[in-house]
């Protein structure tokens, strides 16, 4: 069998409009808020503290570097999303350009990215939630407050809040994308307002001497922090997964992807500058709420409470979009025959992949409740960077193989911009620890076994000959 057999663009679009289809209900505004909902969350509310310990006040340069890598990749995403408006994101685009086997590899990679992101973020949500209710004198029983072994000296069995929030998000997504995006839009508006509140209040307490020395760990510290805070940008690619549920994908998908990334990058740079200007960077050691800590140091405890609430809402929207993106990847791979049919079965009433959504949500809830995930940002990052690298290469391949294909959006400065995306992403991957690479390779090996045992034999591209 040819491992690099491709599915034509026309066939992909035709298949997406036949049989059980998803409901088209999203516009550019919805997609922009969907992207912001996925991007602003754990990265800005948690990882900024860890990034400051690695880069010092030069964290703003780390965010700019990571933002540039995402920006170049986002332009490639925008061209593909407007040209091939089909569910599956980079998996589908790779299938159309590089072939089935590379598509399977990147699809399996995306499953890792979204699954670990949902589970890790749910644990972060649980921590903020328990911190918030403690202010009202409420406590989650210790045994149900964290995964086994997650807290030293405390006997814990299950992280109940982490599991429950994932199940709630799963319920919303199973009922319909329109209903889910309404809730997402409300929470995104609130959390952006909270971030702006931090900026307005915090800028008056900045002490420029806290920015000295500006680069305490040199250029290497900036690069290492960029590889870490890259996690803060993960999510805009999930917008491309909504292609089949967008009213005018050729126009709205590029806008949603680029607008959401631009807004979030600007907010990240401003927040990190103010945060390190209020608090000397060494004080972020062991702190999991760096943004609210800055306001506490400034004596604005009442605003810090709003920041905690904004963090909870921010992380909730990340969970919603990441779970959404994961189910759509499963949907696309199942429809192509690479995964069992149940993952692409659409509910007759809600027009969502109902069974797949609940299966994915249940597994993610159990992982978040039972596994002390710790620092998973690097493992999630390497999967995302690999996906961004492939999508950038795929744009160049499709430009050469199908130059006549109508493109509603074209990457400016091609081939320079796609090549810059590849260079930036590979460079950031090389900054990650070898243990991260080892875990990534093990996951890919598991995927290879599944592909050669099941997927390539059940692929729809085998069926025409039967």
TrEMBL record:
Bilayer disposition of the protein: Multi-pass membrane protein
Organism of provenance: Tumebacillus lacus
Subcellular location: Membrane
Pfam family for this entry, one: AA_permease_2
UniProt key word Cell membrane: no
Alphabetical keyword list: Membrane, Transmembrane, Transmembrane helix, Transport
Protein name: Amino acid permease
Statement: the UniProt record of this protein carries the keyword Transport: yes
InterPro entries: AA/rel_permease1, AA_transporter
TM segment ranges: 25-47, 59-81, 101-125, 157-174, 186-205, 217-236, 257-282, 302-325, 354-373, 379-399, 411-430, 436-454
């Amino acid at each position: 069998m040819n491992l690099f057999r491709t599915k034509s663009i026309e066939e992909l679009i035709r298949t997406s409009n036949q049989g059980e289809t998803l409901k088209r209900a999203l516009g550019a505004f919805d997609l922009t808020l969907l992207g912001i909902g996925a991007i602003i969350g754990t990265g800005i509310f948690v990882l900024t503290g860890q990034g400051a310990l690695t880069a010092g006040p030069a964290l703003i340069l780390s965010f700019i570097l990571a933002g540039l890598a995402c920006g170049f990749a986002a332009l490639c995403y925008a061209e593909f999303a407007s040209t091939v408006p089909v569910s599956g994101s980079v998996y589908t685009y790779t299938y159309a350009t590089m072939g089935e086997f590379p598509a399977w590899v990147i699809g399996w990679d995306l499953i890792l990215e979204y699954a670990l992101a949902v589970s890790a973020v749910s644990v972060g949500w649980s921590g903020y939630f328990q911190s918030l209710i403690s202010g009202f004198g409420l406590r989650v029983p210790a045994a149900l407050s964290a995964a086994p072994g997650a807290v030293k000296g405390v006997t814990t069995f299950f992280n109940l809040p982490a599991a429950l929030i994932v199940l709630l998000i799963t319920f919303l997504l199973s009922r319909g994308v329109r209903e889910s995006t309404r809730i997402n839009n409300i929470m995104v508006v609130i959390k952006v307002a909270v971030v702006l509140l931090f900026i307005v209040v915090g800028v008056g307490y900045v002490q420029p001497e806290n920015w000295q020395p500006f680069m305490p760990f040199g250029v290497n510290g900036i690069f290492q922090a960029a590889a870490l805070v890259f996690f803060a940008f993960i999510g805009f690619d999930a917008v491309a997964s909504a292609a089949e549920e967008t009213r005018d994908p050729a126009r709205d998908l590029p806008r949603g992807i680029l607008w959401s990334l631009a807004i979030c990058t600007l907010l990240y740079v401003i927040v990190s500058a103010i945060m390190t200007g209020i608090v000397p960077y060494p004080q972020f050691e062991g702190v999991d709420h760096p943004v609210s800590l800055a306001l506490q140091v400034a004596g604005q405890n009442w605003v810090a409470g709003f920041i905690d609430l904004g963090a909870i809402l921010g992380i909730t929207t990340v969970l919603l979009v990441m779970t959404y993106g994961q189910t759509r990847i499963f949907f696309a791979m199942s429809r192509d025959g690479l995964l069992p049919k149940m993952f692409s079965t659409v509910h007759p009433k809600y027009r969502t992949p109902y069974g797949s959504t609940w299966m994915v949500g249940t597994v993610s809830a159990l992982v978040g409740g039972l596994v002390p995930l710790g620092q998973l940002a690097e493992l999630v990052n390497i999967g995302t960077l690999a996906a961004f690298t492939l999508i950038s290469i795929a744009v160049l391949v499709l430009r050469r193989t199908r130059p006549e294909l109508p493109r509603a959006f074209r990457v400016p400065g091609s081939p320079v911009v796609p090549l810059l995306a590849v260079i930036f992403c590979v460079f950031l991957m090389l900054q990650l620890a070898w243990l991260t690479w080892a875990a990534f390779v093990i996951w890919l090996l598991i995927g290879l076994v599944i592909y050669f045992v099941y997927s390539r034999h059940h692929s729809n591209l085998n069926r025409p000959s039967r």
